[in-house]
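4.2 Preliminary Data

To establish feasibility before requesting continued support, the project team ran the inverse folding procedure on a target of 282 residues. The structure was first converted into the token representation described in Section 3, and no sequence information of any kind was made available to the design step. The complete token record follows.
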């Protein structure tokens, strides 16, 4: 299962999104939350593989990344933190870092028109959209003015691991069918590289998503996917994309209306319990 990276700043405001000519996201600042030089933290456990320091602002060379730190988190994921403040980097190449460890301060070194953090994520050495692999933790603040705010993932999933013990003739696919989860998801969740190779007696972790917290329009993530799956089992035709948009809200409103619940389009305790109970009884 891929690591869930933490945003490398505590005040999250995306000022420039990922696109073909900008394969990163830029993170800005707020005077009330660290200001121009807010702290930059490690997105996850890892080893520092590259450090560049001592550079100033340079508006001549557009390819000048300025001061940076590159961290290898595992064999799949690497992150790079760019335009750091000169002489603020406190790690060295070869250092082991933990999630949330202080790395440096935000700056405008290299080719930068203003203070910001240019944040790259590499998956198997290819640049990917950081917003798809990075999560906002409970202690972080998200700006109302952030770009792509509705796409930001939240690290607040309430997951309880249940276990299935593999028996003779079991396959990952039929185990998945029992729990309404694909064999690909099970393989990823259990770090199984070859889904065709499981052994008798092996413990397979089954993610059970608890919908006891509030989901509403604008929510996203795996819990919304689980909600959409359950609604589809009840006759709705939703795209399972993990985005609580207008169509998901419309389905929730319809469900609430048909089941004598408060009709507000919000999935709180009563609605989630009703959805869960009806889903189990199908």
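Position-by-position output of the design step:
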């Amino acid at each position: 299962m891929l690591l869930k990276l933490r945003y490398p700043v505590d005040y999250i405001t995306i000022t420039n999104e990922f696109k073909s000519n900008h394969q990163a996201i830029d993170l800005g600042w707020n005077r009330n939350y660290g200001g121009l030089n807010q702290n930059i933290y490690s997105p996850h456990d890892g080893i520092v593989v590259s450090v560049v320091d001592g550079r100033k602002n340079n508006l001549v060379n557009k390819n000048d990344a300025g001061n940076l730190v590159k961290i290898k988190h595992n064999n799949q994921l690497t992150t790079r933190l760019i335009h750091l403040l000169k002489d603020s980097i406190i790690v060295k190449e070869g250092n082991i870092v933990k999630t949330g460890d202080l790395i440096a301060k935000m700056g405008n070194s290299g080719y930068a028109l203003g203070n910001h953090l240019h944040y790259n994520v590499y998956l198997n050495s290819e640049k990917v959209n950081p917003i798809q692999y990075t999560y906002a933790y409970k202690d972080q603040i998200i700006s109302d003015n952030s770009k792509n705010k509705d796409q930001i993932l939240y690290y607040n999933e309430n997951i309880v691991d249940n276990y299935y013990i593999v028996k003779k003739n079991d396959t990952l696919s039929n185990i998945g069918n029992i729990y309404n989860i694909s064999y690909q998801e099970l393989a990823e969740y259990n770090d199984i590289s070859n889904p065709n190779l499981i052994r008798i007696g092996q413990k397979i972790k089954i993610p059970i998503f608890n919908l006891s917290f509030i989901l509403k329009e604008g929510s996203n993530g795996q819990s919304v996917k689980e909600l959409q799956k359950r609604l589809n089992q009840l006759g709705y035709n939703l795209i399972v994309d993990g985005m609580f948009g207008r169509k998901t809200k419309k389905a929730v409103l319809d469900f609430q209306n048909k089941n004598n619940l408060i009709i507000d389009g919000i999935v709180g305790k009563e609605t989630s319990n009703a959805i869960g109970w009806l889903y189990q009884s199908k």
